[in-house]
Design a protein that fits this description.
This protein is mainly alpha-helical. The chain is built from 3 helices and 2 strands, in the order αββαα. The chain is rod-shaped, with a radius of gyration of 28 Å.
Protein backbone atom coordinates (compact mmCIF):
# COMPACT_ATOMS: atom_id res chain seq x y z
CA UNK A 1 0.00 0.00 0.00
CA UNK A 2 1.23 3.46 -0.88
CA UNK A 3 -0.01 6.53 0.98
CA UNK A 4 0.72 9.90 -0.63
CA UNK A 5 -0.30 13.49 -0.03
CA UNK A 6 -1.69 15.82 -2.68
CA UNK A 7 1.81 16.74 -3.86
CA UNK A 8 2.78 13.08 -4.32
CA UNK A 9 5.06 12.83 -1.27
CA UNK A 10 4.98 9.55 0.62
CA UNK A 11 3.35 9.57 4.05
CA UNK A 12 4.03 7.06 6.81
CA UNK A 13 0.59 7.18 8.37
CA UNK A 14 -2.82 8.70 7.76
CA UNK A 15 -5.71 8.82 10.19
CA UNK A 16 -9.24 8.89 8.82
CA UNK A 17 -12.19 9.59 11.12
CA UNK A 18 -15.29 8.39 9.34
CA UNK A 19 -18.96 8.49 10.22
CA UNK A 20 -20.99 5.32 9.65
CA UNK A 21 -22.35 6.82 6.41
CA UNK A 22 -18.82 7.64 5.23
CA UNK A 23 -17.71 4.07 5.99
CA UNK A 24 -20.60 2.82 3.87
CA UNK A 25 -19.68 5.25 1.07
CA UNK A 26 -16.06 4.05 1.21
CA UNK A 27 -17.10 0.40 1.03
CA UNK A 28 -19.48 1.05 -1.87
CA UNK A 29 -16.82 3.04 -3.72
CA UNK A 30 -14.17 0.36 -3.27
CA UNK A 31 -16.65 -2.30 -4.41
CA UNK A 32 -16.87 -0.42 -7.72
CA UNK A 33 -13.12 -0.91 -8.06
CA UNK A 34 -13.43 -4.58 -7.10
CA UNK A 35 -16.14 -5.10 -9.75
CA UNK A 36 -13.86 -3.63 -12.39
CA UNK A 37 -16.29 -0.78 -13.01
CA UNK A 38 -13.71 1.87 -12.05
CA UNK A 39 -9.93 1.92 -11.74
CA UNK A 40 -10.10 4.56 -9.01
CA UNK A 41 -12.62 6.41 -6.84
CA UNK A 42 -12.74 9.75 -5.03
CA UNK A 43 -14.59 10.42 -1.81
CA UNK A 44 -15.22 13.98 -0.57
CA UNK A 45 -16.68 15.29 2.63
CA UNK A 46 -18.70 18.52 2.91
CA UNK A 47 -15.59 20.38 4.13
CA UNK A 48 -13.82 19.62 0.84
CA UNK A 49 -11.41 16.97 2.12
CA UNK A 50 -11.03 14.08 -0.24
CA UNK A 51 -9.64 10.57 -0.38
CA UNK A 52 -8.58 8.97 -3.64
CA UNK A 53 -8.29 5.19 -3.91
CA UNK A 54 -6.44 3.72 -6.89
CA UNK A 55 -5.86 0.07 -7.75
CA UNK A 56 -2.41 -0.86 -8.97
CA UNK A 57 -2.06 -2.90 -12.13
CA UNK A 58 -5.32 -1.96 -13.83
CA UNK A 59 -3.76 0.66 -16.07
CA UNK A 60 -2.54 -1.53 -18.91
CA UNK A 61 -1.01 -0.31 -22.12
CA UNK A 62 -3.79 0.67 -24.54
CA UNK A 63 -2.39 -1.60 -27.27
CA UNK A 64 -2.28 -4.70 -25.06
CA UNK A 65 -5.71 -3.87 -23.69
CA UNK A 66 -7.16 -3.59 -27.18
CA UNK A 67 -5.52 -6.53 -28.94
CA UNK A 68 -8.93 -7.99 -29.75
CA UNK A 69 -9.60 -5.37 -32.41
CA UNK A 70 -6.43 -6.10 -34.41
CA UNK A 71 -5.47 -9.71 -33.59
CA UNK A 72 -8.59 -11.26 -35.15
CA UNK A 73 -8.38 -9.37 -38.46
CA UNK A 74 -4.61 -10.01 -38.65
CA UNK A 75 -5.11 -13.76 -38.27
CA UNK A 76 -7.93 -13.69 -40.81
CA UNK A 77 -5.74 -11.81 -43.31
CA UNK A 78 -2.93 -14.35 -42.91
CA UNK A 79 -5.32 -17.27 -43.42
CA UNK A 80 -6.82 -15.66 -46.54
CA UNK A 81 -3.37 -14.98 -48.01
CA UNK A 82 -2.25 -18.57 -47.32
CA UNK A 83 -5.39 -19.91 -49.00
CA UNK A 84 -4.89 -17.67 -52.04
CA UNK A 85 -1.27 -18.82 -52.26
CA UNK A 86 -2.28 -22.49 -51.95
CA UNK A 87 -4.93 -22.17 -54.68
CA UNK A 88 -2.49 -20.36 -56.97
CA UNK A 89 0.19 -23.03 -56.50
CA UNK A 90 -2.36 -25.82 -57.03
CA UNK A 91 -3.61 -24.22 -60.27
CA UNK A 92 -0.07 -23.76 -61.52
CA UNK A 93 0.79 -27.39 -60.78
CA UNK A 94 -2.38 -28.63 -62.51
CA UNK A 95 -1.59 -26.57 -65.63
CA UNK A 96 2.00 -27.76 -65.60
CA UNK A 97 1.10 -31.44 -65.28
CA UNK A 98 -1.86 -31.52 -67.65
Amino acid sequence: MEIRDGAGRALDEVTLKLSPKEVTDLLVATSLIDDGTNSHVFLRDPAGNKVAVYVEGLDEEPLSKGTDWWAGPAILAVVVLVLIGAVTIARALIELLF
